[in-house]
Predict the structure.
Amino acid sequence: MSEQIEDYKTFSQVTDARWYPRYHIAPPFGWCNDPNGMCFYKGQYHFFYQHYPYAPQWGPMHWGHVVSDDLAYWKHLPIALKPEEPYEQGGGCFSGSAIEKDGKLYLMYTGHLSATPEEEAAVGYAHIEFQCLASSEDGVHFTKSEKNPVIEDVDVADKDVSIHDIRDPKVWEHNGKYYAVLGSRTPDMTHGQILLFESKDLVKSWRFKAISARSEDLGGMWECPNFADIDGQDVLILSPMDLNTEDGKFYGDKVAGVLIGKLNYRSGIFSHGDFQYLDKGFDFYAPQVMQTPDGRSVIIGWMDMWNVDMHEAKDGWAGQMTVPRELHVKDGKIISTPVKELEKLRKWKPITLKDVVIDEATTFEGVAGEACELVLTIDAAESKKFSIAVRASDIEQTVMSYNSSGIFKFDRTNAGEVINGIASVREIQIEPQDKLKLHIFIDRSSVEVFINDGAEVLSARIYPKRTSQKIIFIPENGLLEIDSLEFYKLDFGIPHPHIKDTTEDLTEKFPFLKG
Ligand code: FRU
């Protein structure tokens, strides 16, 4: 594929840009969307992502690649997959997952083949999706399988499945067999569904097993299914789209969450409870799950949403990921908390305060920043109603508010550059408790807030001026009583020293990186 690169920004121009994250994964240039292939292989965490390296907009998909020793510091590696084969002409290498077998790392992904207008007129389809494999011995260089595609349209020809939308395989091993769930929909496009495939060998042949689960009122297409055993429960992670937003049940026509239940490996049927959100913010989609060596289930989501303004595109990049989050199931409810490894980014002495009572808008010395973390316990029973403004200045602020009846509000109306395509205020009802715990991660163009030990999470992109760094505590109805406050400035998670070896690798492929 030959692409013209016009007005390309160098890596350091991108990463010095005003909204480029300090500690979240983002592409070194160009575009990213879904997380892909998150895994632990040969002593390192690998994380891939949907990537278009030639412009800060979606285009034929490549797989970008970063690695980490600890889930806190990441380093860019060369692009792992690019669209070269006949079965991936058009959309390219769509989302998928990773698995280790016999010392090799396998990526299972979707080849998205677009029809030309003539073909479309002749055969009546715009695109077809195939499932493919690529493998690597070193976790860096990948070779596509000669057997590709390993799952084809003919494999579902007589099933109640659209051959146009069948993608995003998540592969795992269970009792010596390999299983993959695929996101799909019915041929009439009215119901999203999950397909289960099985294989004895992973690499040669795959067999359709069942339509594991199907939407009743949960959208017309289920994207990016992921599957994990979490605290003894089978958890299906999914990103439904084409949701009906009229009755206000869903925040948007695309959301991401989980179904908790039990997969019957014999029948392939997944029985489950109601849909639960993984994140109730504006920007969270297509999360991917992995098992850490010590048995935790960790997810990272794309911290953006389709068809919404991404102002960073002006600076040569677009899209970023959330922090890694550990999942648990507690009393049937999904809980997500930031992984403990993120504490490694706390490079400076913390500021801690205890039992502070204020009766007017207050800032605390040193508690401010564009890349920082705030851990708070607030006496919600006493404080009744209050707000916390972050990335604030005289002209803009991102505001989180709470009142003791349990309404938590996230307002980015005046956060900076206006974000079109989605509402700017989100209000959620949480279980009111006497103490409200907030764990907030602030980065150059994002805020993630974990409420009451991960019972709720909200993630949002924002586009403030770099100088808007204040954190303001605002009592709205009398006193605000802060039981404890911890504040940490955070280090570069993708530190600049790594750029040197990164550009060396990448300049071979991308001469424009020579600057
Ligand atoms: C989800 C998604 C996936 C697809 C990928 C393409 O965001 O639509 O279903 O594989 O993006 O980039």
About this structure: The first strand starts at residue 30 and ends at 41. The chain has four helices and 33 strands. Residues 497-509 form the longest helix (13 residues).
